[in-house]
Amino acid sequence: MHKREPHSGPARTALRTGALAAAALMGAAGLAAPASADAPGPVVEDGRTQPVFDYADAVYQEVDIVTGADSDGDGEPDTVRMRIMRPEETEDGLQVPTILEPSPYWAGTHDAQMYDVDLDDDSAGTVPRGRPRAGSAEEMAQASAEGPRGASAQAGPTGDGSATMPNYYDNYFLPRGYAVAQLDSLGTGGSTGCPTSGGENETQGVTAAVDWLNGRTTGFDAETGEEVSAEDWSTGNVAMTGISYNGTLPVAAASTGVEGLRTIVPQGAISSWYDYYRDNGGVVAPGGYQGEDADVLAKLVYTRADADVCDPVIDGVTEGQDRDSGDYNDWWDERNYRNDAEDGAFGASVFLAHGLNDWNVKTDQAMLLWQALEDQGVERKMWLHQAGHVNPFNLRMDEWLDQLHRWFDHELYGVDNGIMDEPRVDVQGSDTEWAAQDDWPGEGTAPVRLGLRPGGEDGDGGLEPGKHRGKPRWEEFTDEGRGTPAEELVAEPGTGKDGALVYRTGELTEDVRMSGVPEVTVRAAMDGSSPYLTALLVDYGTDTRPTEDVRYDTDDRVCYGEGVPEDPGCTYPSYNVTEESDFKIVTRGWIDARNRGSDEEQRPVVTDKPYRYTWPMQAQDYVFKKGHRIGVVLVSTDHDYTLRYPAGTEVEVDTKRTSITLPVSEGGGGLG
Length: 672
Hints:
Blueprint: E1 2-3, H1 19-29, E2 44-45, E3 48-49, E4 59-66, E5 79-86, E6 96-103, E7 112-113, E8 128-129, H2 137-141, E9 156-157, E10 163-164, H3 169-173, E11 179-184, H4 200-213, E12 219-221, E13 227-228, E14 234-243, H5 245-254, E15 261-267, H6 273-277, E16 278-279, E17 282-283, H7 294-301, H8 311-321, H9 330-333, H10 338-342, E18 349-355, H11 364-375, E19 380-385, H12 397-413, E20 425-428, E21 434-437, E22 446-453, E23 461-465, E24 474-478, H13 486-490, E25 501-504, E26 512-516, E27 519-527, E28 532-552, E29 558-559, E30 570-571, E31 574-592, E32 611-616, E33 620-624, E34 629-635, E35 650-654, E36 659-666
Parallel strand pairs: 6-11, 6-14, 14-15, 15-18, 18-19, 19-20, 23-25
Antiparallel strand pairs: 1-4, 2-3, 4-5, 4-12, 5-11, 7-8, 9-10, 12-13, 16-17, 20-21, 22-23, 22-36, 24-35, 25-34, 26-33, 26-36, 27-32, 27-35, 27-36, 28-31, 28-34, 29-30
Keywords: Aminopeptidase, Hydrolase, Protease, Serine protease, Signal
Organism: Nocardiopsis endophytica
Domain Xaa-Pro dipeptidyl-peptidase C-terminal: 405-663
């Protein structure tokens, strides 16, 4: 355990209040008074805890916590390493809640080999997996979390005896009466055990931290080996937060209902690992990481000491993921946290944030969890922004900090500040403006079915409300395999392309807002090696639209909290990157034709025999503008996502029995 030396840091925005005044304010806010009359407590004004504790004097400690798992099979319980910063006053009896960010990335990553996705090609080889992935330690400390601030990824003492953490939680929340902590998930950094890409042992590793903060398990000082307890300084109330894998571990922990975990704030997080690496029976990559799978990720984050002890465990990941079939099985079911949400196991409230242009952790991960939580009456809140796999903090800094601050104060300190009375959902539109609404999808959202009018082979097929009946009308395309990205297949719809069928509405007579999960029904016959059917929903019309990228304004440095020279508590605002284009692929969805009846079992596809296929696309909130045209494009191989078989699979589509159903919340009359 380390104390910082006295430091004359930047002036605080509030002066420390005496113990008697603090106790009076805490009583009014429902806060617990400090255990010692000499220890000043948190101060609440305007429904918010105030920065009255010196960041520069914070106590730093590292603890190895005993878990209920033995995933490395050495006969000893796995341990997880937690690094903690807390106000100095906790040494004198002040008790505080903890904001915890668990991660497999704090110690960095290894190179790992991707799978070959170009099948039946002797010249194809594995692709080295060496650059930082979105959500890695490097990107978490830089672009994904706070922009180009250059902070160290892992917490720890600095040369002058102080300590720092990446991200903004310590600088902002520690002065307001919170402990802030990092946790190395199992098999990474200072922890023991093995990484399993979302397995039960990883969940046990994270919940052990909550148990230790509540006195239910043992911890040892990482330096001296002496047993240590949080009893004197921890209230037992815990929040977890983070982006990507760092946000997924909180979802896993909340799915257990562990006592003491009051809330989670996952951003761009996974709620079902099957849906991250598979979709409707097909092997489907996270965007930007073709060839990655659960075992690749486990090897990537495997940074603990004793580097060979987990090899058999990771071999088990390879076997369990069953990349050969892509089917849903018990191994994947263990990693489906939405099951627990649907069963009412979530005891923590949930504040979700997700990018509408996030194709790494796709939108279904947030939206389907949101709906499952609603069904169980879980307290929840959500932000949907127009960027990709990024933390919303820099995009809307003041509002994000204010809402997050009041959320934590309400959930961890019991402050009655009205946060639960406000609209639950903030949505950033394609014009990058923000709007608040009570729920998602919005009130009045209803399904609208659009049928196909023949002509898709020439790129002039129609898309019209209603169900088309009559004799089958067949149109066909030939899969271009690994040769052509989807963006090229949809780019010039009027010219017709052999590798796709294109169907479009007329020009919209008013803006049409879609909110929810589109669903496609296709009657098709196939002949060839590719088992995939892919549907793309496209906005046709020249416009300037947000992309997944953000830019940081490095000329506008914003200091949001207290700090020390090595970590000044400053960052840069970010802005959505936009581009002008003639079209945008709004969402997409995939199915393995052999899994037309179930994700769990394949059935043969008889050549040239028509089957009925129904599958969902990724959830989306999007406005198709007046004068634009909505398009549905049918292809087989999706170059950046599916396995890529040799070109040549022929697909015949019965246009009379093929349709798409859109969840329309506004402007349905604009469809004609």
